[in-house]
Amino acid sequence: MSTESHTHRRTVAPEGLTCFEVAIKETELQVCASRDLTDLAEDLVVRARWELENFIRTHPYFRETLVPLDVPADAPGIVARMSEASRVARVGPMAAVAGAIAEYVARGLAELSPEVVVENGGDIYLMGKAERTVALWSGDAGLHGVGLKVRGGLQPVAVCTSSGAVGAEREARAADAVTVLARNGALADAVATALANRVREAADVERAVEAARHVHGVLGVLATVEGHVGAWGNVRLVSLADETAEREA
Q: Between 249 and 151, whose confidence is greater?
């Protein structure tokens, strides 16, 4: 679950797309699509939240637990995906909520837009064929001016970040940030959270990256702490200044 501030929108200038914001209760999204699909995006958020909130009413432990939790076979789809992601990552299911909702909305919008970008508090789900750049943000001590290039062939894909340097959990852990790529948004979110919980000093970076390599479904990982950086998989870093210069040329 991303701890990143909503003020740090991270998709860099999605060319050719119309961007708009959707806010329903605690869910605040920035959405980019081929046209303004605000009404549909709002409906999708309401639907996702309704499934989740109705389940929590009868299973309140789902929201409270910090460990994996099995759910009934007839649980709503978004609940089942969060539960499975939490089991793989060994965290509570709510650690997967931002990534799960981002994917839910993106897949719903993809029926009307071939290119979709949905950001939920720093966790992003990308669908389409266009190459996109995601800005990396990891607090004052972390990476600056750096983006993650996501090629079209890798999509659909989630890019989820959990950070100990940004947000309410910063005192509990030391990681500047851990970013995970996976086609499953809930999985990317849950694994990013789990790995950020492990990274407390520079020596932990490589161990976290190695752990991510062995999680089925993870396509790439980037971990940073105290100036130390570790990466594996589909991680291509670019200069945001260079990206801006190319667009303006």
A: 151
- Cβ within 8 Å of residue 14, ≥6 positions away: 32, 115, 117, 130, 132
pLDDT tens sequence across 140-180? 555 668 889 999 999 999 999 998 644 434 444 456 889 99
The residue to which tokens 């499953």 are assigned: 184
Give the single-character DSSP code of 6: T
Mark 79-104 as b/e (b = at least 16 C-beta within 10 Å). bbbbbbbbebbebbbbbbbbbbbbbb
Q: Domain 18-248 falls in which CATH fold?
A: T-fold (3.10.520)
Tokens for 95, please give them.
């650690």
Asked if residue 220 lies in contact with residue 207, where contact means CB atoms within 8 angstroms, the answer is no
Three-class DSSP category at 35: coil
pTM of structure: 0.89
Asked if 59 and 52 touch (Cβ cutoff 8 Å), the reply is no
For residue 156, cis peptide bond before it (omega within 30 degrees of 0): yes
The pair of three-digit structure tokens given for residue 150, joined into one six-digit string? 């996501």
Cβ atoms within 10 Å, residue 187 = 28
Three-class SS state of 70: coil
Residues 6+ apart with CB under 8 A from 200: 173, 174, 175, 225
Instruction: Report pLDDT digits (tens) over 37-61.
Output: 999 999 999 999 999 999 999 999 9
- Report helix, strand or coil for 143: coil
Residue 203's closest CA among 179, 165, 181, 230? 230
CA proximity to 188, closest of 143, 248, 140, 124:
124
Q: How far apart are the first and last CA of the chain?
A: 37
